[in-house]
Design goal:
Alpha-Beta Plaits; single chain; 4 helices; about 120 residues; four-stranded antiparallel sheet; globular; alpha+beta
Length: about 120
């Protein structure tokens, strides 16, 4: 199971862009399914948040090997999806993420630095 991930978050869809946003979201899901079939990623999961007054409306977690995720992130197809999405949603962001053992390693490193500074 992969411990590395990409977190893709987005904010509100501006009025007048909802149909376009649905189209781009569908294109993105097709693309991530293709990546999964090809073995470029292990899995992906879109999450839509309930209305809560915050800036984040939804996110997508893409899990896989860090090296493969980096290749995906730099690929022209991924860049095109992000460019299209940035035109129909507010506050689009892509962030490297860590889970499982990857998150534990990050927390251990943080704890080490906290101990050194205290």
């Amino acid at each position: 199971m992969a411990h590395d991930a990409l977190f893709i978050g987005w904010g509100e869809v501006p009025a007048g862009y909802r149909q376009k946003a649905l189209k781009v979201f569908g294109e993105a899901i097709e693309y991530y399914n293709k990546l999964k079939r090809n073995g470029d990623i292990e899995s992906f999961e879109p999450v839509i948040l309930d209305y809560h007054g915050g800036d984040l409306s939804g996110f997508l977690i893409i899990k896989g090997d860090r090296e493969k995720l980096n290749r995906v992130k730099m690929s022209p197809d991924f860049q095109a999806i992000q460019a299209r999405a940035s035109l129909v949603v507010e506050r689009l962001g892509v962030v490297d993420a860590f889970s499982g053992e990857g998150a534990q390693a990050r927390l251990a490193s943080f704890a080490k630095h906290v101990a050194e500074l205290d």
